[in-house]
Design a protein that fits this description.
five-stranded antiparallel beta sheet; Alpha-Beta Plaits; four-stranded antiparallel beta sheet; elongated; 5 helices; Ribosomal Protein S5, domain 2; about 30% helix
Amino acid sequence: MHPFYYNTILQPAVAEFKDRGSKFLAYSFPVTSIEECKKQLANLKKEHPKAVHHCLAYRIGVDGSTFRVSDDGEPAGSAGRPILGQIDSKQLTNIMVVVVRYFGGTLLGVPGLINAYKTATSLTLQLSPIIQKAVEVTYALNFDYQQMNEVMMIVKQYNCSVVEQVAQLFVELKIGIPKNRLEEVINKIQELQGVSYKTALLV
């Protein structure tokens, strides 16, 4: 993985692959947490209650360190691993792919299953544009409301993202600063009078 950037998909997509009567529906989702993955899987199980398998793989985190594969009753290694293999071949993270299978009456065998799950995943990944995002470090800023414009100018200038904003008498603003611009942004913030900042961990 690149230290300053990562690749993910822009939007959800779905693709279909058929083999000897079995139908494989591959759904890809941009995700940032295990909770999101669980929700998407639960939704698909509701949407496809008659499907025999809901196999999946996800990889999460800007370093791609959190991942999981599930064969959901298919022979071990025949579904989840091939799905993850396709995700990794494109060096993607913050993504989940679920392949829903409707059985068509003919056993495909392990090589057939590996090919089906791999192909269905490959098809869905072709349908959603891949985007590059900056690896960000989250900081919490505190300042007087009147300084909002000055702070937001820095946020926009350096392509920081606003994670959370609480505005009362004082403003608390959580921003994601691109890792490769961190020093410049901190220097700019230090030039502003009365703005305090600290690193913030995302829970």
